[in-house]
Amino acid sequence: MTLLPEPINLNNHHRDTLLKIFQHPTSHNIEWPDVASLLEVVGTIEEKHDGKFQVHVGSEIQFLDRPKHKDVDIQQVVDLRRMLTSAGYLQVVQDFERKGVED
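Predicted structure:
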């Protein structure tokens, strides 16, 4: 049985970033500092000597480059979705969306 992540540590800013990552069509204005902040809460993020960031969420480990501009690119969003989905955060997003519809 897979345990779902606990969203209790997600503040409104983290929640909004998580929702943007799973948004369709893909948002083009997801800022790297927002993503890094979210990743610190849902897992770990560590800058390595080569400038890449090692991200560990659930059982997934991914190496990401800091974007050249302030926003992450489409491929990084796809990679983040895959990693967060594997860790159970798609269900968290769906719960947030469902609650938003009920309010």
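Summary: The chain is about 50% helix and 15% strand.
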